[in-house]
Design brief:
Blueprint: E1 4-7, E2 13-16, H1 24-66, H2 75-80, H3 84-105, H4 109-129, H5 139-174
Antiparallel strand pairs: 1-2
Helix pairs in contact: 1-5, 3-4, 3-5, 4-5
């Protein structure tokens, strides 16, 4: 059986064979669309999970800057009051749930490794978060540790989200 590609006047390729094979142009278009969907899903995750999660902290910071007589904190003191530990834990939990749903469909050693890493981050953030409310805390140290935990959680959950989005796109393209 032979397959011939015919390009119509509008530039779209169409293959004609017994069952109608998909052309290279159609495959490329599907891959481009899948790649766009991966980045759209990642951008939505970034906007809704990270930026919206930080909105109260950013709002409090801006309010303090606009209020006369408000105490001005150092960057690390501000980080210590930003509730970054709970934010890190919520990002990680969401990504672990997404990873588990993807792993039920298809096993991936890399996704398992990222998920285990995210669980370790969550455990450390949970342990360290108890000291963030202590009256004897060293604000600079709490600020540094919470920012590190938050950034590692953003990286880990972002990587997990990206991996799951790529797997879903590959699954959709394979259909």
């Amino acid at each position: 059986m032979t397959t011939t590609s015919v390009v119509s006047s509008d530039g779209e390729g169409a293959a004609h064979a017994g069952g109608g094979a998909v052309t290279t142009a159609n495959l490329d278009a599907q891959r481009r669309q899948a790649k766009q969907m991966v980045w759209l899903r990642f951008t939505i995750w970034l906007a809704l999970s990270v930026l919206v999660g930080l909105a109260p902290t950013i709002s409090e910071y801006l309010h303090g800057r606009q209020t006369a007589g408000a105490p001005h904190h150092s960057f690390w003191e501000w980080c210590s009051e930003a509730q970054l530990y709970p934010m890190a834990m919520s990002l990680v939990i969401a990504s672990v749930g997404e990873a588990l749903m993807q792993l039920m469909k298809e096993a991936s050693a890399a996704l398992v490794l990222v998920t285990v890493n995210n669980l370790v981050i969550m455990v450390f953030a949970a342990i360290l978060s108890s000291s963030s409310d202590d009256e004897n805390k060293i604000k600079e140290v709490v600020g540094q540790q919470s920012l590190i935990a938050f950034l590692v959680a953003v990286a880990g959950s972002g990587l997990c989200t990206l991996m799951c989005a790529k797997a879903a796109a590959a699954e959709e393209t394979a259909r």
